[in-house]
Amino acid sequence: MPQPSSPNTSNTDGYDIAFRVLLGVIAIAVPASNLAWLGGNLTAWATDSGRTAPYQPVQALLHPHQLWPSLDDTSLLIGARILPGAVLIALGITAAALYKRHKDGSSGRKKRVAGMAKPKDIEPLLAKAITAKARSLRPSLKDSKTIAAHDTGILLGNIQGTRHEVRMGYEDVAVAIMAPRSGKTTSLAIPSILSAPGPVLLTSNKAAGDAYTATLEARAKVGRTWTMDPQQIAHATREMWWNPLADAKSLEGAGRLAGHFLAASVDASQQGDFWSKAGSNILSQLFLAAALDERPITDVMQWLAFPADRTPLDILRDHGFTAVAAQLKGTVEGPPETRDGIYETARQYASALLNSEIAAWVTPQKGVPEFKPAEFVTSLDTLYLLSKDGGGGASALIAACADSVMRAATAQAERNGGRLDPPLLAILDEAANVCKISDLPDLYSHLGSRGIIPITILQSYRQGQKVWGDAGMDAMWSASTIKVIGSGIDDPDFADKLSRLIGDHDVETKSTSTSDSGTSTSISMRQERILPADAIRALAKGTALLLATGMRAAMLTLRPWYAEPGADELSAASARASKAITTRAIAKTAPKQDDFGTAA
């Protein structure tokens, strides 16, 4: 630690002030004297009042009449005083304006927060390294001379205060925790979808003015767009149906499907009680029977309504699932109070299938093509899965479809030698509301290595804990190689956790004391948080924290789609898609007319 300075420090401070004053005088005197000499010569030449003077700027400033004796006092005043002074003032104003513009530009870009990552600290996410990584991950790019930026990774933003683009690679898996209106859709979901090189899966609880309308036309130019809208968020015409029982011909597959209905109906903390587990087991057994006999999923609701129906028992026995049939029989023939409670629980979980409008999306429809996940993952198509918050069984179908796509992608990657090329991008927006895949935290451990890139977007950390429990959310957080935290973090515990993860840095502290013997100054170093919790809570909109595995935390400036080239065209396309939604909604609510043209 530096020792306190001697009492002579006050003399040193005086010398410093005198030196700075001297520099200021020189900074003004040198240009002023040169301008005086130049102005005097220009005046002599313009008035034809004698020869020009030799280069003597000091003499021109102090005694101009000695250099130009033939000039009258007025000419000398104008040429060697007023004109140089005006030029000097103009130069000063220009310099001040340029400095202010530079300062304003710097503040507009926001200076880098002390202690946060510099470009060299996150070099693996910058252009050169991410391009080299893309070549090694994607065989289709190995021999390409030039690679487009969107083929190398997903743009997250720029390092704050710089033009360095930061991208996550096509082996990363991400969690984004961003409050509403903090840029999660405009700066993350939409740009990622628009630049995706392969198939795209999006889950959302909104349509008009959101990722759905903003990307629909653009993705339609790349491949086919599929929209599953059982609750009519976008009032989409039913142009597809999907069979949720296609993957339920094994006990594991049927159990996964039942698990989606369970997760959509109760929180993680309630999924372990007797009634929840028993209701989920009954659903899985009936789903298995329906899948084995290639029946529509709606038949399960008929069996739930009549527990005494022996059809599912016979199907399970005929296909060799005698143990499962015995379990089902034990429940059916058990105490009536217990049996009725279990069946009622299962009926509540699957109640959305009673709605014919919802059921139509998951049962065969004449003239409507079937959506097949195995074909989708090898295409450049886009799948939009829309559901309302708290959609219950409807959101279970959304989660089941998303899960089916990711499992189909995993199987295809294994057939390809380990990875999908091009990769599948899965934007799970509002995942805690409309896409509650119960084992998603476990899937995060291997999806990236398969070329399946999930970005799970949550409004808060606690929202994830509610769906997957403390252990599940911690597992997803730990498995995510990319973590993006936007503005609006109001959870003090999570903000403090982030502050501790970002770490401390050394701060220089200067203290001055005065006594009878003079003034002494001491300098010490102390550690303080790079970003305290209150600073994280106050993150400005348009900025985000980036925590990447093995790298220092970085502050990003987000890149919303509407500030990028081509935004006008995308805005127009989004407006057209939103207008189409409005038109369809009005058409549905308009009163029907009879054959005579009168309202029915």
**Mean pLDDT, nearest integer?**
87
| End-to-end distance | 90 Å
CATH superfamily of the largest domain: P-loop containing nucleotide triphosphate hydrolases
CATH class of the largest domain: Alpha Beta
Detail the poorly predicted runs.
1-10
Q: Whole-number radius of gyration?
A: 35 Å
| Tally of domains | 4
Briefly note the structural class of the backbone: alpha/beta
CATH architecture of the largest domain: 3-Layer(aba) Sandwich
Strand order of the largest sheet: 2-1-13-12-9-3-8-7-4-6-5
Instruction: Please outline the major beta sheet.
Output: 11 strands, mixed
**How many beta-strand runs?**
13
* CATH topology type of the largest domain: Rossmann fold
Number of separate helices: 23
Which percent range describes the beta-strand content?
Answer: 5-15%
Share of residues in helices: 40-55%
> Shape, please?
elongated
